[in-house]
Write a structure and sequence with these properties.
Helices cover about 25% and strands about 25% of the residues. It is an alpha/beta fold and about 300 residues long. Strands 3, 5, 6, 7, 14 and 15 form a 6-stranded mixed β-sheet that branches. Strands 10-9-8-11-12-13 form a 6-stranded parallel β-sheet, sandwiched between helices. Helix 7 (about 220-225) links the parallel strand 11 and strand 12.
Amino acid sequence: MPDAYGFTRYGGPETQAFLDPPTPVPGPGELLIAVYAAGVNPVDWKVRAGMHRDFLPLDLPAVLGREAAGVVERVGEGVTGFAVGDPVFGSSAAGCGGYARFAVLTADRTAPKPDGISFTDAAALPVAAGTGYDAVRLLGPTPGQSLLILGIGGGVGVAAAQIAREAGVAVVGTSAEAKREFVTSLGATSVPYDSGHFGEELKAALPEAPDAVLDLVGGAALDGVAALIPPRCRVLTVADPGTAARFGARPLTRNSSPQTLTELARRVVAGRLDPRVTRVFPFEEAEAALREVESGHPWGKVVLEMRRA
């Protein structure tokens, strides 16, 4: 079995392939890990499609994946606080993807994996759960206020919903009708965009308009709720800055620090956050895993499993 999965040129899924790159060497401030699990995210296919090449230049072929969990194999120069054999999770270093048997993580965006969390759950935290955590923190809804999440059913949405609900915020989320029960299980009010009664259900769920909106969809999603967004409403997007700018939306500023990762892991161990890893694909099915996410309709989080703990 090849050691990595990535893409050979920018484009569609036809550019994806299993690869046999040399084992990467960690540079200063980096860690080499034996990967046990890697998170699969929309950003992965967007990188492959060339949407990020202006600010994320890559030497092709390149390995896919922005987050991983595993065991430290080697410590780069200047790294402290980590040792060979430590279980960790974090963000992959620039140019070194996580869909691989071995990957390089950036030490200042990596944290120890506690015993009470699986590698598959840990691999779901740096990008998806971390984005949800940062989004709620930046929007700052307070107890008793309301948060509307557009596209609540994916990995970012499920984390943001749980974090906001724990803070005493009323959460309303849009998703497909098929996810209504799933969304309700997050403690949120589900408003399916394809139910045929979207406008009526949304007004019933938010009779006084939301205090904050988190856009995880982009495109027409914000336009579809424009009538409910008053000038005072705080809007944040991770999907479509162009459309969102008309609503005064801010782009998300990420904080992938070890402190944030540690806080997320603590919440998982304590049962206060469930990353909702609903599909775990073996490494040899990496193509199917990315296809599931690229379809735009995943339930919760998708993870690749490289090794069994």
